[in-house]
Amino acid sequence: KAGVTQTPRYLIKTRGQQVTLSCSPISGHRSVSWYQQTPGQGLQFLFEYFSETQRNKGNFPGRFSGRQFSNSRSEMNVSTLELGDSALYLCASSPGGRNIQYFGAGTRLSVL
Amino acid sequence: DQQVKQNSPSLSVQEGRISILNCDYTNSMFDYFLWYKKYPAEGPTFLISISSIKDKNEDGRFTVFLNKSAKHLSLHIVPSQPGDSAVYFCAASDNNAGNNRKLIWGLGTSLAVNP
Fold first, then answer.
1. B55-81 tens-digit pLDDT
2. How far apart are the C-alpha atoms of A36 and A82, rounded to whole Å?
3. Which residues of A touch B25 (CB under 8 A)?
């Protein structure tokens, strides 16, 4: 079974731009969660999608949004980028109703 | 407010010895705990988990111990191998939170196993 795939792996943007990150979950997994990882803050939960609906949300501003498609693939969008948005963005999938999440390799976003 | 705390940012052990990674939590509603390890340039990989109805779970060289009264869990790796060198994350969840259930993560402990 293929693992969780995140694209692109690396991204460089400038302040004020917007960015879209993509995540393809493990086949059959209906839950997709997104995390932001920074050195001082660890893994911070952004949101979770399940069957195309946002099921849970972390404490991030509205500039961070996401969606999930009928094939469970998910995208995350960040608008009006700020320098502090530079981080590793991780996507994780799970069958749904389970605690164990399986992670992709992440997208490293650098905002200049 | 850090609900899951890994107070040791780093740990260094000799190959063949035991590695003990610690994790404390503050939320008494947490009832499921997981350990993940992360290599550079990769996403975290699930290692082992434990439910609050148990106090120990073992998988090969990895054992997790849970002390509910102390709100403390630990991961033991015996014997430690150089390939175990990675960042280890502790995570917890409240299974009674329904759709609000989410994993809360510690900041990680960087383990170095020296040959």
1. 999 999 999 999 999 999 999 999 999
2. 14
3. none
